[in-house]
Each structure stands twice: as structure tokens, then as C-alpha cells.
Amino acid sequence: MSFRPMGCSLAANLGGLNMREILSSIGAAAFLLSAVNAYAVDLPAGAKKVTMEEFKAFADGKHVKVEIVDLEKPVSADLVWSWKKGTITGKADVGGKMIDVKTKLTFKGDKACSNGKGEKPNCHFIYIDGDKFYEVRDDMKVHAVSTVG
Fold first, then answer.
1. Is 55 helix (H, G, I), strand (E, B) or coil?
2. How far is the C-alpha of 136 from the C-alpha of 142, rounded, in Å?
3. What is this structure's pTM?
4. pLDDT higher than threshold 60 for residue 113
5. What pLDDT is attached to residue 39?
């Protein structure tokens, strides 16, 4: 079972429900924007697209407060990105339900990718502005805003 914040998949067990079923209106690519979204965020004009080496230096091993902004319900998480372990781990609040997160962390060109067991990777461009990084979809819509602590 999985859920994708951060370009990531979040491995979760929500009473036997498949997260894809719960978020079915989002479609096969769980990071696509739904028709009406009260959580949409614009990429700041000053945000800089970074390489994966720059992103690694910025976020590796640090606690990150994540807000997923392109899903139908609010999602927030406290995650740690570990390049050494190749994982993204932590806890997420999905519409009031707490779930454990453990996904595989990879890279594809200039995108950070994550995926749950048996799933295709979901990848996003990374932009940094101050202490925040933005995961940005191919259509240039913001998927998630994360604050490095």
C-alpha cells in the first residue's frame, strides 16, 4: 500500500485500504493536480532549480517538515532524506490519520525520485528558496513544500 508525498511514495497501512483507491480521483500519477485544490502553492520567483548534488548537501540527514499541496486532502509529514541509506523515512498525517513512511530514494537525471515497494518511481525537480525546497512536477506545478530544520 502506498501514498506519495514528496515525489515520494509513503508506505502505509490504513486498515487494509489501498491508498490509490482512497485517492483515486488523482489517478495513476498520485501527484497530478485535482480539478479544484485549496492547497495550491506557487513556486516563488526567487527559487533556484538545483542539481541533485546541491539538493543532497541541502537536505541529507536533516529533519524536513513537508506539506503536500496537490492532493485532495491536507497532508503533512516529518521526514528524513538519507542518501547513505537511500531512503525517505518518518511519519505523515494524511487527513488526520498518522502513517509510517519508508520509501526508496533515487535520482533520475536532475530529478529526485521515490517509490514504494513494487511501484514505479515518482520524480520531481527540486527548487530551493531560503530554508525551503519545492518539489515541482513536469508541468511546473508545486507538489510539495518542505522546510529543512
1. helix
2. 5
3. 0.74
4. yes
5. 64
Residue 43 to residues 129, 132, 133, 134, Cα–Cα distance (Å): 9, 11, 10, 7
Q: From CA 33, how far away is CA 27, in angstroms rounded?
A: 10
Do β-strands 63-68 and 75-82 pair in parallel, antiparallel, or remain unpaired? antiparallel
Measured over all CA atoms, what is the biggest interatomic distance in the chain, rounded to whole angstroms?
Answer: 43
Tens-place pLDDT, residues 37-96: 456 789 999 999 999 999 999 999 999 999 999 888 879 999 999 999 999 999 999 989
Nearest Cα neighbor of 31 from 92, 65, 75, 87 is: 75
Residues 6+ apart with CB under 8 A from 63: 78, 79, 80, 90, 148, 149
Dihedral sign, Cα of residue 54, residue 6, residue 2, residue 78:
positive
Amino acid in position 81? W
Residue 3 vs residue 40, higher pLDDT: 40
The whole-angstrom separation of Cα 129 and Cα 70 is 19
Which cell is 58 given? 541541502
The three-class DSSP label of residue 52 is helix
